[in-house]
Amino acid sequence: MAIGRFRTDPAELTAAERAVVAKQHPEGALVVGMGLGIAVSMAVAPALVVVGPIVGGVAGYALGRRYRARRLRGLDGSDGSGPE
Amino acid sequence: MSQDGGDGADGGTSLLPDRVGLLAVLALVVGNAISVPIYVLSGPLAGRAGPSVVLAVVLAAIPAGFVVLYNALLGSAMPVAGGLYVYISRLTSPFWGFLVPFTLPLVVWASLLVTATGFAEYTRYLVDLPSTALIVGLLLLVLVINIAGLRIVAQFQILFVVALAAALLVFIVPGATAVNPANYADPFPDLGGFGLASVAMFYPFLGFGLLVELGEEIDDPGRTIPLALFGGVVIVALVYVALTAVLVGVVPWTELGNANDLAVVSERFLPPWGPSVVAAGALFAVVTSVSTALLTASRTIMRAARDGILPRPLSRVHPRFGTPHYALLVLGVPPFLLVPLADELIGLSVFIGLASLTAYFFCAIGLWNLPDEFPDHYENAAFRLRRYRGLLFAVVAGALATASFWVVTLVRQPVVGVVLVGWFLVGYGYYRYRLGKVDAASMYATMTSLDDHEQAFARTGELDVSEGD
Fold first, then answer.
1. Dihedral angle over CA of B253, B259, B260, B264, nearest 10
2. Residue A56 needs a FRET pair 20 to 30 A away by CA distance; which of A49, B23, B286, B346 works?
């Protein structure tokens, strides 16, 4: 099983799905979460920087995946052949 | 060996015309890897970590070994220009791949600052000339050489690597006889300094990434890349250990801390002309490092621009010289303004090491995905591992090493981690902005496919791939 990809074969995606997936919501949210994890850790207790970025990154990634799934569910499945 | 790309009439051509063989590639890689750390970083790192800097070199060699493995595996399966960007965007995800060319300018500028600082220090040791003028002159020369073409760089590199090797022997061999074991008595005076030295010493091993960036320009890459990588890492690791052991063995570590310490320390055991030879070797090393830093990064940016995720003009190749001149200018011009600000050698080196190992972590994930995503490429690779015995171990070990680097950096030098994550955030904003400028669905298809590149690569000797807009 491949890691970190929405689908093993992007060619199987419709154009509308590709347009959503291209925005890389989980990856972007991971970066935001990691940044927040560092900021909060340094503000609360510097020792927390050991785990703060990891927790923030994982939480951000999970939220990003949920958001992307919601966006994909919102697509009309029959309207997948044209550009976004 | 040479290949005429036949593109002289079209400035939009994006494939590179020159090809280099094993000897030139090994010289490029060893010259790049063996330069800056030995001459510029060893003194400052030893002055902070003490004798433990030798162990830091050994520790840094571990992730470096994995990086070599990743490079060998991926370079063998998918030899392309801009390798790291292509591997990560195709095999892990487009955004992580995009971060490579987006972050690369910062890494290159930091690298140039470290190198230029060392250049100034060693130049002042030899001659009394204005250091700023020398640095600007050096950067200008290197920029011109890079724009003029890879073959010229490779020829310079071979010459300089020979001179560098001679200078290193002049330091290491006589120096080994002057070592005082008492100087090793307190091996770990500062554990935090030792941790940072381990991260910073990863930077010197980054020259091995050069190979995959030059995939299109290497003769018989399936054979040349693994040979050059494994030969190079053995040579470099041995030299680093020997040199740092001599450095901290000849004088008490508390006397170290400057970029030109190798020349200064060599006064203890060499005849009067000796330190000048060591310093001259440093200048050769600096030149090779600066030149290859621009060489590799410009190819990565060129490849990303071909895909359209960076501005298209950055993919253009000069009609006469056959080099990505706009990408080179983006990388080579800003350091002229930044050089006078360079004084944080260790911080800059930690930044380079952390950013690079993070990129290689995503590269490792891509390596795991390779057999699924591009099974034909993997099957046809001249060099590969078994999935669950070799690849899994390589990925997990790379993840652990990357996590260790982040923890050490955030604990000991948090500003570096904050700057890097902040830059990634800026990168996500730019990535989304860029997507808004193009057809996002097409961009995603492009950044998950090798089709465009393979078609272009197949036509290398026939015609151009005009991508300018």
1. -10
2. B346
